[in-house]
Every structure is written in structure tokens, then in C-alpha cells.
Design a protein that fits this description.
heterodimer; A: Immunoglobulin-like; 11 helices; globular; B: Leucine-rich Repeat Variant; ARM-like (chain B)
């Protein structure tokens, strides 16, 4: 890595690290090459340099800079671009891993990453950058250690700086005195509490005939630790056999996990990702009978509480479509009366699409609403649709499924117009939905034990799951 | 000490607040740091000097922030150098840091003034706070003034023996900086480095690996006594250090250890006596096993770079049967972000092409989503194509058919091509592939049509025994009118010409003069000639070729010959010199056949010239025109060649500077003696840098121990042979760092090869088969006629520049649930 450059929304560099081994024109040529590549991917009619740049290769090859050919890895966050050029061969994943870490540290320092916030605290950003990247090598990247060296901006620090006193000199313990690299020494909290957020993501592709082509379930445990001293925790689970191919924060003792499937760790202070895992499909089957592989597929299918039938007809300069959504009676969510929320269906129309018009309707399946208030309810139940001209996407949102009966149907009917003679809409419809209070894997936290500290911490666990299902039509 | 500090500061704080609270409260309301970046420069420069010279720390800080803001905006602020540098010894850490940032950027502008600050840093190197020591060394080594290199080298040496691992880490990182400043200090730096190599702190060891890779990547023999300890420390190093350390150890293993038993050397494959092929030692080198067992747990790291580094280690070192284990962890990375996904897939592609069986079980996870970004779609397509077997061809064919309607044109053409691959690799499904391709010819999407024609062509060439092969050509030809894509049209014309010869089974009685060719061929020629004027050059070239072929096959068919002559006369006055050249060439080739195509056009000087050359007889002409058409190899469709995981060149397809440093050497014929690696301290010793005994066993610290019971304690010290003993570690300067390959030279040599290729193309290949898009673009655009002939042979391995396409929707939803915390379970 040669350094890091932060660009604002219009492609001007606002902050850049020191490119010590390169001529001053080097970062400039990188920025130019990047802006050039970016402008090529943007359609001309889009006036703003939009955030969405799906077509720009995350790893750009720049053949001529002041230091010879280079690669430029870049990510986007909060309307800003973070570029990392490298003129020597290096694993691009190394760069992306660093960028990711840099962004998460920045997020922690500034709460929000945006042009305004960065400008407000540019001196902090410079200091953090200087500590994290030394001559192109990652130096101190643990946020717990960093907070000892560079003070996060806070109201208290502002008071100090207005008074002309640096907060750093009275940071209590000497930096680097902690025996554990990821945890700072001498942490004290008035209220000792620790929270775990377990979320699972289902990623699936549905074939035209409604069978599952591909599906994976990913899980992740976020942790927010506000515990004093050096707490040694042990977190055990029910149904932990569902964890497959896990990855851990450096604090987790791997051997212990291999033996007991429980997480034994001394947490860093603050927010961190404790663990990420994949759910092995065989562990998901909750029925007691052994399932054949076809049965397994059906089992996974039961995590998708809706059935989508779509009819899309493409004509000249436009087309028409009908989406019909019905509940899947055997699905886990409906069987256990779990709320399914934020169902979003989106269809990318062709690049020449100008606009769409549709009507959404809901048929409760016999129960029927009456009166004007019920009409409102009905309209709300049917969801809202929106046309997003920037992304050329049609989006239909059903805020909540409520408790549908088997014959309930949601329908979206409509047409769209396009400038293209033969429009080519996206070949699939994306469906997103959330099920709070449920995990696909059936994993539950069994208990959290703490040794080595005397106090009783407050513990909290929150679970939720999301799904992104691609329906081909 | 800390308490004193605190008390003192508290006192100062209260005093200052008392003094001027009212006056300063307005700073809150203004809260104006953002204004530093936005404000007009003029009013800033006015008070800057005053601020910097002020006695108030607050004002100094204010001034420095303004200066940094100006650096940010690329203003030249070197005028303030002296004023800023004055503050380098400020007791306020924040001020100091800002001064450092300034100093590092402007030291080379004012080297003399920068030297003034060096005393301060030397004093700081003896400070009691490790943070101050480390920072002083970092800044000192960062000042790009060559005259202080010896001071820096001495400082590094001092810090290398520091008690704080953080300072030692800074020392290691400073080594490459000092080396870049002045290479003559290499001996001293090497000495320091070998001290640092003995370091037992996991915090600093990663940086030592960085320094090693930077200044003496080839002196791997220095690692002998440290190898085993480094292996065991990998798991405890910080994540960035793990990557560097694994890279170093992998290179070491490749150079110093013996080959795993089931990985055969390339030359062994040729050995005549297979009975003797089995190795004498079936054992995996224990030192190699140590590295693999210590690295494997890191597959569970949260850092994608570490996972990739371990994968690279396993992929290049492990016995074949154990390689599988990195596949799932790599696949896990596909979920993390689109950037990581894109890079990881490129690595998986290498795996897919080298050992497809490793990925086949997970193939459904590589199916392409319509929301993937363009590059991801392309790489996934390449992986899927590499994984086709008769077993999964049915499923894949169904997938590919779905992709054909994608909005991304590149994916469409790749998918169509892959359908063709299915037909080749799985004979069972070839008929459904064929019908799918034939269906596509009628598609409304030009790109799909063109790709289908090309796929049919290469299928046809690869498998001449394909049932009803001629029907394919005939049905393609019947669509000639409806197809507008130039590439597809050119391709059809070529096929019609190439397969124009009658299959011999005269089903219908034909006029005698047409017996040699299929009956529908002259009609296609007629259509081609008819649209000749409006066709692009690529089509014109193929129309000429078709005309020549028909002319030579059916010389007695009057109408065809007239059509051919007409085509040649049109081409003769074409605007494109490629077309004119082709016409001239073909007409002289045909001079001996039936009076030549140019007869009746009136003789001019050119024809007089031609009379003097050799005139070929008809069979010879036929040979020239029809033979030697090798089916295109699909290898060239997608560049390959770089087969090392985890490199940038893998992604860009272009070699980077210094990439030889990352290329792994081939296994040695025989590993070095394992006693070289025996040391006194093979017994695990407690880390003195980690005083907290209670906390041992973090991470994978103890993983190394259970892997090889007993082997760690037993061996006594063995004296090492003189040559490679660590005492001879001071190298001759200049030898240690290999010469960089001059990039210009590199490209120059590349061009030579390319131009040689072009010259080798003989006339026989002149009618280049339309092959891929890039080929034909090259043909039409190329400024000199030579490249006409080279189409399809040289340019396919060119750089696949990322093609901007229209697919712009990125359905990447990032739904952070911002609802209130609804905890199900409270402890």
C-alpha cells in the first residue's frame, strides 16, 4: 500500500496520507485516473456523481503514474471515496481489509462518516490515519489501543481544547500497557452491561418453477461490551451444531471452541463483531426425521413465507407486469405466528425505462374489510410502490404481513414505458424481508458466565433474521 | 507521575477556565473546525503567524489545525516551516502530532530547518513513555533527508533493544525507510534485523517480517534458526503481521523444505519407469507440517487478508489431499462486501481452473445473481465454465440459459459461449445445447445472436462429426438476412465459404456446374454482394473470402463467377485499405483459376506486375483457401497465466513492479537439513512481554503444541555448516537486494515477441477467421495491414479492459435495523 486518499463527492481529494516514497504528482495521477474511470461508467444523463457505481471495478489498474503502473483499490462510504493505491504487487484483499478496518475505526470515532463530519474533525482523521498507516504499512489498528493514542472527539475534549489543555496528557494509563492487544487496560464502567445481537441472513435463488436453486444462511454475532476490569466470559449455545465454518474476533479462544462449541473470550471494550458463521443446512432441519436432500431443500423453502408469481410481458417501448404474492402455508414464520416485516420486492427495469404506473391491492381472503377506516387499512396492507428513476428500479414495499390467512393475496399490477425498442428488464425480482425474533438456525444463547471479576453484569440478547431471495421469472 | 500530571492539568484547566471562560464560550457556538477547510484563504494567512507564535496552546493548536487544513487543500505552506518546527518539543501531545504530520510532509522542502528538530527527537528516544519513543523514531525515520541516515540507523539499533514491543515494532518498520534513504547502511540494518528476528513478542514479529521482505527478501537462510519459533508465533501476531509472516514462511518453505510426497515435480511426470515413481520418503516434512498446522487455525480469522494468506500457504505447500480445507473459508469471504467478493472470486477462479474438483461440491453458491456487479458476473461465469462436467452439465445448461437474458451484455455473450462449452464437455446434453443455440439466433438481442453464431461456429469446427453439421451452417445461412450484428454476419459468411463444398450425397439432381458446392451457397453470395456497400469492413472481408472460395470451387457456374467478380471490383475501390488489400491479394491468388477474378476489368499496372509472379494451380489455391483452419482454442478467451493466489496481478492481469518478490520458487530437489532449524530454545518459553499469566491460551496460541508431540523438546544443539550459519549474516551490500527488472525493458521485450508473431503469419492464414469480438475490432481498427492477418492469433490474450455496461443496479441492501432494541432475553 502506498497511502490513502479520501475524495469528496465531486472527486476532489480532501484528506490524503503522506506519500513519502513517491513524487508529489503520484497521488494526483491516481485521483485523476480514478475520476476518469468513474466518469466512464456513469451514464451521461446522470448529472450527479451518484453513489451507486456498480460498474466500476473495485480494483483499478492504472498503467501510468509517476511511479510506474499501479493498482487502485477503492470503497465508497457516506458519499466519500476512499482510495488506496499500490505500486507494488500486494494482495488486494489486504488493502480492502485495511480500508474496512479504517472505516470502522473512523465510524467509531466520528459516529457518522460524511463530508461534513470529516471536515469538522479533519485533525482527528489525520491523526488516526497517521497512527494506522505508517509509510503504507498498517500500524495500530485496534480501536481499543488507538483510543489511548488519539482521543476521540467528544464534548469533554472540546471543553479541554477550548481551555487549551490537551486531553492526551492526562489519559490515565500509559499507552501500550495492556497485556491484551485488543483491550485497553483499566476500563471502568459505572454500569456493567454486555449486549449480543445475533442476526442471520438467508441468501437464496428461486428458479422459475419455485424450487430452490441455491441457498446459504449466514450469521453474525455483534457484541457491545461495557464491562469493567478484565472480564473473562464464556458464552454457550443451544443447537451450536448449526455453526459451520465460523470466523472469530481475535479474542476468542479457538481451541476452546473446537472442544466445547462455546465462545470463551476476554472482550474488547465497545462494539465489535464477535463471530461470523455459516449455518450448515443439515442442522436446520427441525423435524426429527432424517431428511433426504430433497426434503432438506423443502425445509429451507419453509423459511420463505411467501410465494411470488410474476407475469411480465415485454412489448414495444414498454411492457406490463403482474406480481402476485401469497403466503406459504407451511412456512416456519406463519406456523409460529412470527411477524414478517418490510417485505420489499424490486425489479430493475431496462436502462431506457422512463416511468411506471401500477396499482397495489390486497385481498384478505374472505374476511373482508368494510367502512372507510377499513379501506385505509386495506390500502396500508397492500403496500406502497415507488419508481426510482436513478436506479431504474420499481420497488414495492409491504410494511407488514400481519397475520394472513391461507387465501390472502397481494397483487401489484402495472405497466412501464421505455425509450428502448425492445426493453430488457432485469431477469429476476429481488424479495427482501425481515423476521425479527427468529433465527433460521434455531441457535439460542444458553448462558453467559463470567469469571475473574466480581460484579454481576447486565446481559442482553437480541435476535433477528433477514432474507434476500432472488426470484427468476 | 500520572497523578502529578493529572493534578497539574486539572489546576491549569480550572485556572484557564476561570480566566477567560466568557470570552471563549463563543467557540462552542461557532464550533468552527469545518470552517478551516471551507474558509477563504486570505483571512487565514493573516493571523496564522500570530497564532503559531502565540504563547497560548489553544491558539497554537488552532494555528496548526489551520495549517493542516491548508495542506489538505494542497496549498503550499512551507513558508511557515520555521514557526511550526519551533513547536516540536511542545509538552502538548496533540500539538506535537500535528507538527509531526507537517514535518513529514515538508522536510524535503526545507532540509536544513528540518535538521534543527532532530535533537528533540534524539532526546525523545530516551523518554520514559514508550509512545513518545516510538513516535520519535517514526518521525525521525520518516524525514526524507539522506544526510541523517546514519543517525536513523543508530536510533533504530537502539530501539530494537527497547523493552517495549511497540517500540521494537516501530524499529522494525523504520528499517525499510532507512534502507530507502541510504542503501549503504545495509550491514548495520541487517544486524539490527537479526536482533529483531529473535524477538519473542507477537506484537512486533509481524513488522520484522515486513522489514525482512523489504530489505533482504532472498536471504532466507537467515531464518533457519528462527523458522520453528516463527511458525508457532504466527497465530499470535497481529493480523497484518500474520499476512506478512505467512508470506515469508511460505517462501522459506518453498525454498528450504522438501516437497510434500504427493506433489510431483514436473519432470517426474516424464520419467519412463513408473514403478520407481513412488518416493522413498512418504513422510511429510515435519517442519512443513508444523507450518501448516500452525497456519490452519487462522482460516477462522475475521480478516479476509489473513484468510487469503493462509489459503495461499495451503494451496502452495500442502499435500494435494489436504488442500481442500481452505475452500469453504474462502467462500465465506464472498459474503462480506462486493469488493472482497470480487477479489476472492478471482482467486477461486484460479483454483477452479487448476483443480476444479475442489469447487464442484459448492457450485450452487457460485450461481450468478442479477444483482452482482459486472466484474463479479464475469469471474463467476469463468468459474462455472471451468467446472462443467457431464454430471452437472444439465444443471449448468439450465443456469446458462437463464443468464442469456441478463441485462449485462458481456454476461450474455459469455453465457452463450458457455452453452457451447457444455456441448463440448458433455455429449449427453449437446443436442439440447445445439437447440438452445439455434433458438438464440432468433433472439432480439444482437449480442446474443452474435455470440450464438460464434459458439455454433466453434462447435462446428471442433466436432465435425456432429450430426447434421451441415444443417447448422444451412440454418445459419438462412438467417443471414435477419442478422445485423457485423461479427455474426462475418462469421456466417466464413462458415458458408468454408463448408461450401458439397457433402457429396446428391439428394436432388443438380446442374453439373454446381455439383461441387451446396446449392444454397451462391444465393448467400448474392446476398452478401447485394449488401456489400452497406456492410462494415469485417463483413466485407469475409464476403471477399466467400467469393474467392465459391469462385475456386465452382468455376464453371457462370452466375457465381460473375457475382465474385462483381464483389472484387467493388472491393477494389473500397474506402478501407484493408478491404482493398484483401481484394488485391485474393485476386492475385486466383489469377490462375478460370482466367482470374479480375479478368474483364481491364488491365492496369498491377496486373502487369502479377504476371511475373508464381501462379498457383486450382488444387493449390483450394489448399491455401481451405486447409489449416484449426479450431480456435478457448484458452485464449480468458487470460490465464498468473496462477498465484493473493496477488494483484491476478486481478489486473498485468504484472506489477517487483512481483517476482511474491512469486514462489519451485520446490527444491531436496530440502535443507532439518537440523539447521534446531535451536536451543525449541522448548516453549513464556513471553516476557506478556506478564499476565492468567491470560495465556488466547487465540490459537497453543495450537502448535498439540500438533507434533515430542518433536519440540528432543534435539540438542547441532552445529550448523559454516556457509549458511547465522553468524555469516552480514551480506555483501548490493547482493542482498536483487535487481529490479526495468519495466520499460519488460514491455519492450513483450512487444518484440508480439511483432515476431505478426511476421510469422503467412499468407495462408490471411483470411482470419472471425473469432472473438476483440479480434475483429482489432482487425478493423488496426492502422497497418499486417494485423489483418494476425487476427485471432495474437490479440486474444490482450488485456480485457473492464467494459462499462449498462447494468447499474446494485441491489445491495444494507438494512441496519434501527428499531428500538427488543431484547427477547434479559440476563
Amino acid at each position: 500500500m502506498d497511502g490513502l486518499i479520501i475524495l469528496d463527492g465531486s472527486g476532489r481529494p480532501i484528506i490524503q496520507s503522506n506519500f513519502r516514497n513517491h513524487p508529489p504528482s503520484y497521488p494526483l495521477s491516481i485521483v485523476d485516473a480514478f475520476n476518469d474511470a468513474l466518469s466512464k461508467t456513469l451514464p451521461e444523463n446522470r448529472a450527479t456523481r451518484s453513489v451507486d457505481s456498480g460498474d466500476l471495478d473495485p480494483v483499478l489498474y492504472i498503467s501510468s503514474t509517476a511511479s510506474g503502473p499501479a493498482i487502485c483499490c477503492h470503497v465508497e462510504k457516506g458519499g466519500l471515496r476512499f482510495l488506496c493505491p499500490a505500486s507494488q504487487d500486494i494482495d488486494p484483499l489486504f488493502i480492502f481489509a485495511f480500508l474496512e478496518r479504517f472505516l470502522s475505526v473512523l465510524q467509531e470515532y466520528l459516529q457518522d462518516i460524511s463530508l461534513a463530519v470529516l471536515k469538522e474533525h479533519f485533525d482527528v482523521v489525520y491523526q488516526v490515519l497517521e497512527e494506522m498507516l505508517d509509510d503504507g504499512k498498517p500500524l495500530t489498528t485496534e480501536s481499543n489501543t488507538l483510543r489511548d493514542i488519539v482521543l476521540p472527539p467528544s464534548f469533554f475534549n472540546k471543553v479541554l481544547s477550548v481551555a487549551g489543555v490537551s486531553g492526551l496528557s492526562n489519559a490515565t494509563p500509559a499507552p501500550f500497557s495492556s497485556p491484551i492487544p485488543w483491550r485497553k487496560a483499566g476500563v471502568r464502567h459505572n454500569k456493567n452491561e454486555i449486549y449480543f445481537d445475533i442476526t442471520e441472513d438467508l441468501d437464496a435463488i428461486m428458479a422459475r418453477n419455485g424450487t430452490l436453486l441455491s441457498s446459504t444462511i449466514w450469521g453474525r454475532i455483534d457484541c457491545n461490551s461495557r464491562l469493567s476490569g478484565i472480564p473473562d466470559l464464556n458464552l454457550s449455545f443451544i443447537n451450536s451444531k448449526a455453526f459451520s465454518d465460523p470466523s472469530f474476533h481475535a479474542c476468542v479462544r479457538l481451541q476452546k471452541f473446537a472442544q466445547t462449541s462455546s465462545l470463551s473470550f476476554v472482550p474488547p471494550d465497545g462494539n465489535f463483531v464477535l463471530m461470523e458463521y455459516q449455518v450448515s443446512p443439515s442442522a436446520v432441519t427441525r423435524g426429527s426425521t432424517a431428511m433426504s436432500s430433497g426434503g432438506l431443500q423443502n425445509q429451507l423453502l419453509n423459511f420463505v413465507p411467501l410465494i411470488l408469481k410474476s407475469k411480465i410481458e415485454v412489448g414495444e417501448k414498454g411492457g406490463s407486469f403482474t406480481f402476485t404474492v401469497t403466503p406459504r402455508s407451511g412456512s416456519e414464520q406463519l406456523k409460529h405466528r412470527l411477524g414478517v416485516e418490510n417485505v420489499v420486492l424490486s425489479l430493475g427495469l431496462d436502462s431506457g425505462a422512463i416511468g411506471a404506473f401500477c396499482t397495489a391491492s390486497f385481498n384478505s381472503g374472505g374476511q373482508g374489510f368494510g367502512g372507510s377506516r377499513d379501506k385505509e387499512r386495506e390500502e396500508r396492507a397492500a403496500g406502497v410502490w415507488a419508481w426510482e428513476p436513478n436506479k431504474k428500479t420499481l420497488r414495492w414495499t409491504i410494511p407488514s404481513l400481519g397475520s394472513p390467512s391461507a387465501s390472502s393475496t397481494w397483487t401489484l399490477k402495472g405497466t412501464w414505458t421505455s425509450t428502448e425498442q425492445v426493453p430488457r428488464p432485469c431477469r429476476s425480482i429481488m424479495m427482501h424481508f425481515q423476521t425479527p425474533h427468529m433465527l433460521f438456525s434455531g441457535i439460542k444463547v444458553d448462558q453467559l458466565r463470567m469469571t475473574s471479576e466480581m460484579y454481576k453484569p447486565f446481559k442482553g440478547v437480541k435476535i433477528a433474521s433477514k432474507a434476500a431471495v432472488e426470484w427468476r421469472w | 507521575m500520572a497523578f502529578n500530571n493529572l493534578a497539574e492539568n486539572a489546576e491549569r484547566l480550572s485556572r484557564r477556565i476561570q480566566e477567560s471562560f466568557q470570552e471563549r464560550t463563543r467557540d462552542f457556538t461557532k464550533s468552527g473546525q469545518a470552517s478551516y477547510l471551507d474558509a477563504n484563504d486570505l483571512d487565514k494567512t493573516v493571523n496564522l503567524s500570530k497564532l503559531l507564535d502565540s504563547t497560548s496552546e489553544r491558539e497554537k493548536l488552532d494555528g496548526l489545525k489551520r495549517i493542516i487544513a491548508m495542506i489538505s487543500k494542497n496549498r503550499n505552506v512551507s513558508a511557515y516551516f520555521a514557526q511550526v518546527i519551533k513547536n516540536v518539543a511542545s509538552p502538548n501531545l496533540e500539538i506535537r502530532k500535528l507538527v509531526y504530520i507537517f514535518l513529514l510532509r515538508y522536510a524535503n522542502v526545507e532540509p536544513d530547518l528540518a535538521l534543527l528538530s532532530i535533537n528533540t527527537f534524539q532526546k525523545d528516544l530516551a523518554d520514559s513513555n514508550p509512545l513518545i519513543r516510538a513516535m520519535a523514531l517514526r518521525v525521525l525515520s520518516g524525514i526524507p533527508v539522506a544526510s541523517i541516515a546514519s543517525i536513523v540507523a543508530a536510533a533504530i539499533r537502539k530501539c530494537a533493544a527497547d523493552s517495549s514491543p511497540y517500540v521494537r515494532k516501530s524499529a522494525a518498520l523504520a528499517i525499510p525507510k532507512c534502507y530507502n534513504l541510504d542503501t549503504t547502511h545495509l550491514p548495520l540494518l541487517m544486524q539490527t534485523l537479526s536482533t529483531l528476528l529473535k524477538d519473542r513478542s507477537p506484537l512486533s514479529i509481524g513488522s520484522v517480517a515486513i522489514a525482512f521482505n523489504a530489505i533482504c527478501p532472498d536471504r532466507l537462510e537467515l531464518l533457519h534458526p528462527h523458522y520453528r519459533r516463527l511458525c508457532k508465533m504466527v497465530a499470535d501476531a497481529d493480523e497484518w503481521g500474520q499476512v506478512q509472516l505467512l508470506e515469508l514462511l511460505t517462501r522459506y518453505a518453498r525454498k528450504m523444505l522438501s516437497r510434500p510426497p504427493d506433489v510431483s515435480a514436473p519432470e517426474e511426470l516424464d520419467e519412463a519407469n513408473p514403478g520407481q515413481a513412488s518416493h522413498e520418503d512418504h513422510e511429510l516434512d515435519p517442519d512443513l507440517e508444523l507450518l501448516l498446522t500452525s497456519a490452519s487455525p487462522l482460516l477462522q480469522s475475521r480478516n479476509p487478508a489473513v484468510v487469503m494468506a493462509v489459503s495461499r500457504t495451503i494451496y502452495s505447500l500442502a499435500p494435494v489431499k489436504e488442500r481442500r480445507k481452505f475452500v469453504l473459508p474462502l467462500m465465506r469471504l464472498l459474503h462480506s462486501s462486493k469488493e472482497v467478493e470480487r477479489v476472492t472470486l478471482e482467486n477461486l477462479r484460479v483454483v477452479a481452473q487448476a483443480s476444479p474438483e475442489m469447487l464442484r461440491p459448492h457450485i450452487s453458491r457460485l450461481y450468478i445473481r442479477s444483482s452482482d456487479i459486472t466484474q463479479v458476473k464475469q469471474v463467476k461465469m469463468r468459474i462455472l465454465a471451468a467446472l462443467i462436467t457431464p454430471d452437472n452439465a444439465q444443471d449448468l445448461l439450465r443456469e446458462f440459459k437463464d443468464y442469456v437474458v441478463d441485462t449485462d451484455d458481456k454476461l450474455v455473450s459469455d453465457a452463450v459461449w458457455a452453452i457451447g462449452q457444455c456441448a463440448l464437455k458433455a455429449p449427453d446434453v449437446s443436442s439440447s445445447c445445439l437447440s438452445a443455440l439455434t433458438m438464440l439466433i432468433r433472439s432480439s438481442n444482437d449480442v446474443a445472436v452474435a455470440a450464438a453464431v460464434l459458439a455454433l461456429k466453434s462447435l462446428h469446427q471442433c466436432r465435425t462429426s456432429l450430426t447434421g453439421s451441415l444443417n447448422v451452417v444451412a440454418s445459419l445461412a438462412s438467417h443471414f438476412d435477419n442478422i445485423s450484428h457485423p461479427e455474426a454476419r462475418a462469421c456466417i459468411l466464413w462458415m458458408v465459404g468454408q463448408y461450401a463444398r458439397s457433402s457429396g450425397q446428391g439428394t436432388t439432381p443438380m446442374p453439373a456446374n454446381l455439383q461441387a458446392i451446396e446449392p444454397w451457397v451462391p444465393d448467400i453470395l448474392r446476398k452478401a454482394v447485394k449488401s456489400f456497400k452497406s456492410d462494415p469492413s469485417a463483413v466485407k472481408l469475409q464476403a471477399l473470402t466467400l467469393a474467392a472460395k465459391v469462385f475456386v470451387l465452382a468455376p464453371s457456374h457462370e452466375q457465381s463467377c460473375m457475382l465474385a467478380r462483381y464483389a472484387f471490383s467493388l472491393a477494389r475501390y473500397d474506402l478501407d485499405y484493408d478491404v482493398r488489400d484483401r481484394a488485391r491479394f485474393l485476386s492475385s491468388l486466383l489469377a490462375g483459376v478460370n482466367g482470374g477474378v479480375s479478368s474483364g476489368l481491364g488491365s492496369d499496372e498491377q496486373e502487369v506486375d502479377m504476371q511475373e509472379g508464381v501462379i498457383l494451380r486450382t488444387p493449390q489455391v483450394i489448399h491455401v483457401l481451405f486447409e489449416g483452419k484449426v479450431a480456435p482454442s478457448d484458452e485464449g478467451r480468458w487470460r490465464s497465466g498468473v496462477l498465484d493466489l493473493g496477488t494483484a496481478s491476478l486481478i489486473t492481469g498485468v504484472a506489477m513492479q517487483d512481483d517476482y518478490l511474491r512469486q514462489l520458487p519451485d520446490w527444491p530437489d531436496e530440502g535443507t537439513d532439518s537440523s539447521l532449524r534446531d535451536t536451543q530454545d525449541d522448548t516453549p518459553a513464556p513471553f516476557y512481554s506478556q506478564p499476565s499469566l492468567k491470560l495465556q491460551g488466547f487465540g490459537a496460541e497453543s495450537i502448535g503444541n498439540f500438533s507434533r508431540p515430542g518433536s519440540t523438546l528432543t534435539t540438542p544443539v547441532v552445529l550448523t555448516p559454516g556457509d549458511s550459519s547465522p553468524s555469516s549474516s552480514v551480506p555483501k551490500p548490493g547482493l542482498a537486494k536483487p535487481h529490479y527488472m526495468d519495466l520499460d525493458k519488460f514491455f519492450a521485450s513483450d512487444e518484440e515477441v508480439a511483432s515476431e508473431d505478426e511476421e510469422e503469419v503467412t499468407e495462408e492464414e490471411l483470411e482470419a477467421e472471425p473469432q472473438t469480438k476483440s479480434t475483429n475490432v482489432a482487425t478493423t481498427v488496426a492502422p497497418h495491414p499486417v494485423s489483418v492477418a494476425s487476427g485471432g492469433h495474437t490479440s486474444t490474450e490482450g488485456h480485457d479492459a473492464p467494459q462499462p455496461t449498462r447494468e447499474s443496479d446494485d441491489e445491495y441492501t444494507d438494512e441496519e435495523s434501527d428499531e428500538e432494541d427488543a431484547f427477547l432475553r434479559r440476563g
